[in-house]
Design goal:
Helices cover 31% and strands 21% of the residues. By secondary structure, it is α/β, with parallel strands linked by helices. It has one domain: Rossmann fold (3-Layer(aba) Sandwich). The strands form 3 sheets. Strands 7-8-9-3-10-11-13-12 form an 8-stranded mixed beta sheet, with helices on both faces. It has a 3-stranded antiparallel beta sheet with strand order 2-1-4, with no helix packed on it. A two-stranded antiparallel sheet has the order 5-6.
Length: 317
C-alpha cells in the first residue's frame, strides 16, 4: 500500500477524509500488527484492502493498493470476488454477526471452497473443511460439522471464523480484533494458533487491535495509526521498548502493569478527533504533551529513525 488516501461520504452527505497517505508493506510469512484507538481507521483500512467498502460510500481514493502482481484498486467486483477468499481472507471481530445462524459449520466453512472450486465433490470439500477446522484448533472437527453457530461456544465460533479464513490457504489473512470477546486464556491460545498457522503456511497476517499487549504477542512489525494517519511503524519489539512518537508512548503507558510494577493504566487525555475535525497540523497535536507551535503548521513528514523504523513527528522522543 503506497500513499493511500480515502474520503468517505458521511451520513449527512459531507465528505469525510478517513485515511491519509497510508504507506506500509506486509511481506510473505510476516505478521504485521495495526494498532490505534477505536476510530483510528484500522477497520476501514482492512475493508479497503479486501474491497468491501460500498462504492456508494466512497467519495474519493488516491494512491495504490498492490497485492502481488495485482493492483487492487483497478479490480471490478467480479475480479475481486475471485481474489477474496482464495488469495486473501478476513477474520471478522464478532462471529455471531459474521456467521449465518441458519447454516451449519460444514456449510459455512465449505461455502468458500464451493465458490472457488466449483467442480469439487462433497468429499473433497469435507476434506478441506476438516483440515481447516483442525488447523484452527478443533480437536475433533467431525463432531461439530453439523452444529449451528448458536450451538458453539464463543471460542469455537472464533475458531470457526479462523477456519473459514484458512480453508483456501490464502496468501494474506486480515484479522480484525478476532479475540476481543474472549477471556485472556482463550485469547492467548487462539493468537498462538493463528501465529503458528501463518508461519507454517508461509502466509502473511495483518492483525488489527486497539490492545498493544495483544499485538505484541502476535506481530513481527507494528504500525500505529491515529486519526487515519500512520504515525509510527517498525519492528514490534523495538517500537515497544523505545517508542519515538508521543502517541505510541501514550498507548504503551495505557497498558496495565499489575504484576511487576503494580500500577493501573494511564489514560490518554482528550478524545480522538472526528475525520472532519482533524487538527491542521499533526493529527495528535491536540492531545500531545510535547506539542509546540511548529506541530500545528502542517502534517509532519514520515522520517526514518532507524532500520525499517519510521515516525511522523517533528520532535520524536
Amino acid at each position: 500500500m503506497s500513499g493511500y488516501s480515502l474520503t468517505l461520504r458521511g451520513s449527512d452527505g459531507r465528505p469525510l477524509p478517513v485515511l491519509q497517505n497510508v504507506d506500509f508493506e506486509i511481506r510473505q510469512g510476516q505478521c504485521v500488527g495495526v494498532a490505534g484507538e477505536s476510530g483510528s481507521g484500522k477497520s476501514v483500512l482492512a475493508l479497503s484492502i479486501m474491497g468491501l467498502l460500498p462504492a456508494s460510500s466512497v467519495v474519493d481514493r488516491a494512491g495504490s493498493i498492490r497485492f502481488g502482481e495485482l493492483d487492487l484498486m483497478s479490480l471490478d467486483e467480479e475480479a475481486f470476488r475471485q481474489v477474496r477468499g482464495s488469495r486473501m481472507a478476513m477474520v471478522f471481530q464478532e462471529p455471531m454477526t459474521a456467521m449465518n445462524p441458519l447454516m451449519t459449520l460444514f456449510d459455512q466453512v465449505g461455502e468458500t471452497v464451493a465458490a472457488h472450486q466449483p467442480g469439487a465433490t462433497r468429499d473433497e470439500i469435507r476434506e478441506r473443511v476438516v483440515r481447516a477446522l483442525r488447523r484452527a484448533g478443533f480437536a475433533d472437527p467431525d463432531r461439530f460439522l453439523s452444529s449451528f453457530p448458536h450451538q458453539l461456544s464463543g471460542g469455537m465460533r472464533q475458531r470457526a471464523m479462523l477456519a473459514m479464513a484458512l480453508v483456501m490457504d490464502p496468501e494474506l489473512v486480515i484479522a480484525d480484533e478476532p479475540t476481543t470477546a474472549l477471556d485472556a486464556a482463550l485469547q492467548i491460545q487462539l493468537l498462538g494458533e493463528l501465529r503458528r498457522q501463518v508461519r507454517a503456511g508461509g502466509n502473511s497476517l495483518m492483525f488489527i487491535s486497539h490492545d498493544l499487549g495483544v499485538i505484541r504477542a502476535v506481530s513481527d512489525r507494528l504500525v500505529v495509526m491515529y486519526a487515519g494517519v500512520i504515525v509510527e511503524s517498525g519492528p514490534t519489539a523495538e517500537l515497544m521498548a523505545k517508542p519515538a512518537h508521543p502517541y505510541t508512548a501514550a498507548l504503551i503507558e495505557a497498558l496495565p502493569r499489575l504484576i511487576v510494577e503494580r500500577r493501573l493504566p494511564r489514560p490518554i487525555p482528550g478524545h480522538l478527533p472526528s475525520p472532519d475535525k482533524k487538527p491542521a497540523g499533526c493529527v495528535f497535536s491536540d492531545r500531545c504533551s510535547q506539542v509546540r507551535d511548529a506541530c500545528r503548521s502542517g502534517l509532519p513528514p514520515a522520517v526514518e529513525t532507524g532500520p525499517e523504523r519510521l515516525v511522523r513527528c517533528l520532535f520524536p522522543l
